[in-house]
Amino acid sequence: MKTSSALRNFARCALAGLAFSAALLGGTGAQAAPHGSSQAGPALPGARDWILKAENNICGLSDAAQLSNPVVVDFQVLLDATPEYKKMKDQKISATSPEGIKLNNEAVNRIATQCETLRASNGYCSVWKEIKHKDGRAITDITDQVKALL
């Protein structure tokens, strides 16, 4: 759904803007996180134990300090399983053409919607393209479950 993706992006931008404004105005005394950082404000115990990049978040929580039960997917496998990518391959549509860009966006939205469905129904806090923990714990991979929904 394009609407949920747009709302998610709007919310992320709004929160980033508020954090930036608070940092400029002095806010609560918390230091602003560097661009691309996975956390803002004072470090919480265990918050730095997650190894992640914010752009790898598909849905759910994106703040490392709030993560409790994240899962991971093989995003390329999911893209290749979407009807949109199959159409691009079958009809030899370039990914950089207007039709290819449209199909790619539809595929990404389809994946995000199904990831959110599984996240919410199974009690996961977030779904990631890539995430690790410093202690080496296994992160549940739900690629096959999402693929079955595509």
If you average the pLDDT, what whole number results?
A: 80
In percent terms, what proportion of residues is strand? 5-15%
Share of helix, binned:
40-55%
Biggest β-sheet: strands ordered side by side in the sheet: 2-4-3-6
Structural class designation: alpha/beta
Note down, in words, how this protein is organized.
By secondary structure, the chain is an alpha/beta fold. It has helices at 2-25, 75-81, 83-90, 98-122, 143-149, and strands at residues 50-52, 57-60, 70-72, 126-128, 131-133, 140-141. The strands form two sheets. The chain has a four-stranded mixed beta sheet. Strands 1-5 form a two-stranded antiparallel sheet. Helix 3 (83-90) runs antiparallel to helix 4. The protein is elongated and about 45 Å long. Residues 13-44 have low confidence and may be disordered.
